[in-house]
Design brief:
Methyltransf_25, 11-stranded mixed sheet, SAM-dependent_MTases_sf, transferase, Rossmann fold, alpha/beta, 276 residues, 7 helices
């Protein structure tokens, strides 16, 4: 790919390379997950604790309940649920994160099942009491992928099972002028590479899909394009997607910590139910 082509406007949800599976970036992503001072890959520990506390009640979990943690990363949520007596299965596409999660679980004596798998592929049938998908991962997906994930979640849950997810609210939609011209920076080493490189960044807006794309073009002798898409939702749109997939929405809040819905939050937290 030449630089001119790399810098062109992508299609909605078009992806070139993935930061989640790129072996050059995987160690950096893991560090970001484990960085307790930043929300760049996982929420800070205090917020994770609050989320788990809320979800134990909201998902009606008790000792022996089964939960699938989609996009589990290095197991930060899974470990907390496991310590509460929940039988946890973690699913993530990153081999690096799953390897770390397995090592942590073994070292702490926690019985957690981890799978290297995309949650766009089926992961069970009538075998879980609850499912969760956090850190706005749902909105990264295209409409077709989101539909597939909801079908997979619904199939995996027992009747009456609950599903919790958070999504970006419309408050996150960038200003059309922010990032419109693009930026570039040079590094001796950094997030994308452990050797000198240049990264060119630009944000694209897609009104037709209520989404935006943060594109990073990395130049280090070769050219690699990383595209991070995010869909923003109104309450009506996320409720409609869940109901169209056969769920009944039970609660809507500003997050998955039990904060009542205000309409002013950068997020929307939802708990939905698979009908009996």
């Amino acid at each position: 790919m030449d630089l001119y082509t790399a810098l062109q406007r992508p299609r909605p949800y078009e992806r070139q390379a993935s930061i989640w599976t790129d072996p050059r970036i995987a160690p950096q992503m893991l560090r970001a997950h484990l960085d307790s001072s930043s929300d760049s890959a996982s929420y800070a520990p205090g917020r994770i604790d609050e989320t788990v506390s809320f979800l134990v009640d909201a998902l009606r979990l008790s000792r022996g309940s089964s939960l699938v943690d989609l996009g589990c990363g290095p197991g930060l949520y899974a470990e907390r649920f496991a310590r509460a007596g929940v039988q946890v299965t973690g699913v993530d596409i990153s081999e690096h994160s799953i390897a770390h999660a397995l090592d942590r679980a073994h070292g702490k004596g926690l019985d957690i099942e981890y799978r290297v798998q995309s949650y766009c592929d089926p992961f069970g049938s009538d075998c879980f009491d609850a499912a969760m998908l956090v850190w706005e991962d749902f909105g990264v997906l295209s409409p077709g992928e989101r539909r597939a994930v909801l079908e997979n979640v619904r199939r995996s849950l027992r009747p009456g099972g609950r599903f919790a997810l958070d999504v970006a609210s419309e408050k996150q939609l960038p200003d059309p002028d922010d990032g419109a011209a693009g930026t570039w920076e040079a590094y001796e080493a950094g997030f994308f590479r452990d050797h000198p490189y240049v990264v060119m960044r630009k944000t694209w807006l897609f009104s037709e899909t209520h989404s935006f794309c943060e594109t990073s073009v990395v130049v280090d002798g070769g050219i690699t394009v990383y595209q991070n898409h995010q869909t923003v939702f109104s309450v009506r749109r996320i409720v409609d997607e869940l109901e169209d997939a056969g769920f009944s929405v039970e609660t809507v809040g500003d997050d998955l910590r039990g904060t009542p819905y205000s309409g002013e939050s950068l997020q929307i937290g939802v708990v939905a139910v698979k009908p009996q």
